Each structure stands twice: as C-alpha cells, then as structure tokens.
Amino acid sequence: MSQDERAQKPESDEGAAAPATRPDGSLVPSAVNGARPTPAVAPATGRGGSVLQPLLAALVLTLFCLPLPYISLENDADTSLIMLLDYARQHDLQFGVDFVSTYGPLGFLIFPCYSGETAMVRLVADVLVAFAASAGLCVLAWRQSLPWRGLLLAVFLWTAANVRVGPDMLLNVMLLSWGLLCFVEDQHRLSWCGLVAAALAGFCAVAKISFLVVGTGGIFLLTLDEWSRGRRGLALAMPAVFMGVFLAGWCGTGQELGNLPAFLVNALATIRAHNSSLGIDARASLRHIGTAVVILAALAVVLHSATAFARESAKTNWRRLLLFAWASSLTFAAWKHGFVRADSYHVALFLGFVPIFMLSLEALPESAGKTTVWRRSVGLACSFTAAAALQFYCLQPLQISLPAPWESAKLNVRRLLNPAEFRRQADSRLEAHRQQAQLPKLREMAGGATVDVFGFRQSYALYNGMDFRPRPVSQSYAAGNAELMRVNERFVQSGKGADFFLFELNPLDSKFPALEDAMVLRDLVLNFKPAATEDRFVLLKRVSHSEPRLRVALAARSRCEAGRPHRSAGIRGHKPVG
After folding, report:
1. How far apart are alpha carbons 71 and 475 in whole angstroms?
2. Of 29, 169, 506, 576, whose CA is between 20 and 30 Å from 496?
C-alpha cells in the first residue's frame, strides 16, 4: 500500500485517528524515505464513527438526569414567580411592556418550580432538555479515550443527579457540549452540530435573559469560527437558525415583534438590577474556594486554547482566540450565576458545572507536547476542587450523594410510567398552599375591583381568585434600580394600576424596606389609605381614581459633606432645618 493510500485510509470503528490526517481533513505531508508521518495534533478518538452508540447512551443518561420540579414548603417568592409566568402566558401579557422578569415568554418551561397548569408540557420539555444535554455530552465523550470518556460521564451522572432542582445545570451542559462540538467536529458532522447548537441556543434565549446574553455571544463566536474554516454556508445558517428559533418562540407565545426592543432594553435593566440588589455573599471559606476554582478554570481554558488545533494551519491562532473567548465567556457566566447570589442552589450550579466543563475540554484536538501534562493536571485539579467543594458545602453526606444517580433513575422511571400519579401528589401539595393563602375578609372587601400585591407573595391574590392586575415588575424585590422602579411608577400613575393593594413590607434577604420598588412605595403612602388587615397583609385602597392625589416635587437642592453639620435652606417660609 502506498503512503498516500495509508494517509487516506478511513478510521476504524474503534475510533483510532489516521495518523496522517489533520482535524480539518487535510493530510500531513509525508515524511522522507517512507517514514511514518508524525501527527500534527494529538489524535481525537471516535472522529468519524457512528453516532448510534453515543445517542443510545444519551437515552440511558436521560433517565438518570431528568430534572425534577420542586414545590416550596410555603408560598414564597418562587411559588409566586411560577404563577406569574403562568398568568402572563394565560393573559397574553407582552414581555418587556406588560411583564418584566428575568425569564422570557418560554420561561415557564424551565423554571425550577412545579406548576399544575403546565405539568404535562413541562414533563415533555424536561425530557427533551435532558436528552439534548446528554446527547451532546455523549457525542463529545465518544471523541475521547475510554478512561476520559468514563470519567466525564461518571461525573456528569453524579452531578446531574445531585443538582437536579430545575434544568439550569442541563441547559448549561447543553450549550457547552454542542458549542464545543462545533470546534472539534469536521466534515459531515459539523453541519448538523452547528445547526443543533444554534437551535438550542435560540430556545434558551427566549426562555431566560441570562441565556439570551450567553447564547447570542456564543453563536456569534461560533459563526466567526465556521467562517474562518471556510464553511461560509454554515456560518450564515447558524445565526439564521438562532434568530428563527428565537422569533418562532417569541411570536408563538403571542408576543408582538414591535415589543422586542422594549424587551431587550428592560432585559438589560433587569440584569443590572439583579447584580446590584439581589446579591448574597458566600461564607468566607466558600468564597476563597470559589475564587481558586475560577482561577484554575481560567488557567485550564488558556492552556487548552493555546495548544488547540494544528499548528501548521494559517488561521490556527485566530481559531484559538475564538475558542478562548467562547470558553472564557461560559466560565464567567457560570461563575457570575453562582456567586453573585451565592446561596446553596446557585453555588451548586457553578461547582457542579465546572468539572463537566474541564473534562469536556479533553475532546479538543490539541498539539502533542510537554504541555499535555500541565493541561490535564490543571483540569483535574480544578475538577477535584470543585467536586469536593460541591460535596462539602451543598450536598448531603457522601453515603447519600454517591447512590443518588440510581435513586434518581428509579424516581424518573416512575414519573415517566405514571405521570398522573406524580401530578396528583404535586397538586395535593399545591392545594395546601391554596388553603394557607386564603384571605376571606380582604377578598370580600376588594369584591370585583382590581388588586395588585406589594411584596413577593403574588400567589395570595391568585389563590383567592381576585381580579389580579400586576404592575410590569410584579415582585417588589425585582425592581431593584431606578429604571425598573420608574417602569412600575408610570404604570401605577397612568390609571392602569390596581384599585387595591395587598401590602406586605417584608423585603427579600432582610434588606432596608424602602430599597424595593421605592417609587411605588412612595405612591402608596401618598395616594392609598389602609382599609383592613388580615394575616400578613394590609389592604390599601386607592383614594383617587383619576389623577394621583399628591405628587412629589423637588423643593430644594444643597450639598453636604460627611462629618460636618448641614443646614438646609428654608422652604416656603419654614425655618431652616439644622
């Protein structure tokens, strides 16, 4: 057999890469005197093989990692938020105008809480998300050698079974795996990997604002990579598919295209409000470990990006830069989501995602050399540190977390085989919430008038069958900056606001009460009066049904300095205040 024939010989079913073939399909120049060609990159196993095995494995993994919607023990903020998302869907509220939230029109499909209104649709969505994440990860794992493949899938099983409240973990894995496949695949697989990645990112973007930002940036970087590889058709198709899926989800849920700019503007305001007003500090030891994990993850991304792909390619440096930007953006987004609001749920999402991310990078075709040991050492150190912190700070004892995948699989099989029984049990717990929220006295006083809720327990108005008319940023804690406060203030003062308010001054996270929805709070003080009390609420009734009775205007302006007495100017004949 000639040297050229050996170079062009297809890979075996076992996945051994042809040593004279680069990842882009071109051939490495033959060595002189018939010597065996030296591979330009470390061979990626499984390239070009059948996808049947990884897809079958993904079906099995789906049974283990199917997310489980939870029901809170009381009528808390999350219970109200899932009911608000259902209310917005049922009443065709326009997102960005009538309703402003961290979730989009399809948010009801991915919110962690259970909803009796969409139980079956949510079950189908959970299965599809779990399979999409498992399929992408399995196709990626089948490009690795058997030990790395087994380690990656074992870590995924353990993490997904223990961090299974809602699908956020799976959505992160889904965007990671299909995006990384766009970098490592070539020839016939690349096209469908790119299109699937774009479609899944489009779905996530219309479901949650954070995924809108991450998905848009990710598809942009992947498109540039495909363009640099000469795949111009795919580079044009990916953003088209992304936008097509996003617009289909937007219009399919009854949203008007004209409201899309307002949705995007208020989405950015919501992100800023979340960053500035909803943060929770982690304990010092966890914060230090989180910093160490993100530093190790960043170092691993640098090492993998700097050695990825064939060095002989003229555009390798450009592709490495794109890979670095894409991987860094995912790392930053995961860290931000985990440690801005550093409760156990969000921290667990970050610590659980990092080991999967680090082990997935082993699928990259990388230059062989001394850096291999460093790459793998840093990645394993980062993975072990994150997994150990996850176990110590967020999970139940090891004797419970280790068999969790098996217990999760048994529960998921019962849920799939008898969804009606699962729904019956969940609905019975929701009925307890409904009974807990009854306000017969206030319900009778409000009658058929419109009612809003100040605070975060909007579920009380809905459970009592009141004529609910929420302001755009419905939960007070979410109106955490001046932009969103003005959105609510304009709504209340425009005549569209409710006639009554169920008022509860109970700020989230024990913040200073006046920091939440401050402008509406001021309007309630000026233009509403107490009518009755029941349980935790004061019923406020609007004094005037036309223009607001009182408005606030700037009376004087002065400057004061810390540590020095301040004497304000007199106002309308009143004596100065010292």
Report:
1. 19
2. 506
- Tell me, yes or no, whether 571 lies in a domain: no
Is the same domain home to 229 and 308?
A: yes
Nearest CA-CA partner of 101 in 480, 455, 465 = 480
The residue segments making up the domain with residue 440 are 436-542
Q: Give Dmax (Cα) for the chain.
A: 106
Average pLDDT taken over every residue of the chain: 87
Ramachandran region, residue 52 (left: φ > 0; alpha: ψ -120 to 50; beta: rest):
alpha
| Main-chain dihedrals φ then ψ at residue 468, nearest 5 degrees | -75, 130
In a domain, 405, yes or no: no
What is the count of structural domains for the chain?
A: 3
pTM: 0.85
The per-residue pLDDT for range 90-146, each reduced to its tens digit, is: 999 999 999 999 999 999 999 999 999 999 999 999 999 999 999 999 999 999 999
The residues near 152 (Cβ < 8 Å, ≥ 6 apart) are 137, 140, 141, 144, 356, 359, 360, 362
Tokens of 151: 């380690």
CB atoms within 10 A of CB 550: 13
Query: Residue 529's beta-bridge partner residues?
Result: 541
CA-nearest of 238, 126, 244 to 181 is: 238
* Tens-digit pLDDT profile for residues 82-106: 999 999 999 999 999 999 999 999 9
| b (16+ CB within 10 A) / e for 118-156 | bbeebbebbbebbbbbbbbbbbbbbbbeeebbebbbebb
* DSSP bridge pairs for 308: 366
DSSP H or E stretch at residue 528: strand 528-534
* Angle of helix 316-339 versus helix 168-184 axis, rounded to 10: 170
Rg of the chain taking only CA atoms, in angstroms: 28
